[in-house]
Amino acid sequence: MSELTFATHPADRGRAALVPDTNIYILNSADRLEPRVVALLDGSLQFHCSVCLAELAVGVANYSPEAEDWPKVRDLYADLFATVPSHRILVPDDETWTAAGVVAGTLARTQGFQPHQREQCLNDALIYLTAAKAGIPLLTANRVEFDLIEQLAPGGAVLHV
User: Fold this and answer.
1) Which end is more exposed in the chain, N or C (fewer Cβ atoms within 10 Å of the end residue's Cβ)?
2) pTM of this structure
3) Domains of the chain, with CATH numbers?
4) Which residues are registered as beta bridge partners of 46?
5) Is 43 helix (H, G, I), strand (E, B) or coil?
């Protein structure tokens, strides 16, 4: 008899799957998303890219503990990280890393990106390609860069807010 290694919860069936981009987490936590986007997020089965989670962790770690709202920010993201189910974390594989490097390098050259833009483009290419490989649409507020990435690596689905 084979073992059942993964099963979705009955409440998850029929829900649209999405991968939120880093900016979606940030805009949502700041209550800066339109109600229709919040409803889409709330009604979706969310998968989380490890690259986005790392970008959020960098932002939180870089946030000053001396800031007045530090406890609120810390707690908000600690709660977010605590609620992400490990079976819904998407991690780029070796092939995805290489493809993302080609996409980011090509865009850096053709668009004249500065060093900090190259790093951000690599992260965005990783996020897009990881979601595409999983067959799950990416939800983002970053239309310009993801439009460029999609042109070089068609096949993924991007929903822009």
Assistant:
1) N
2) 0.90
3) 16-160 (3.40.50.1010)
4) 18
5) helix
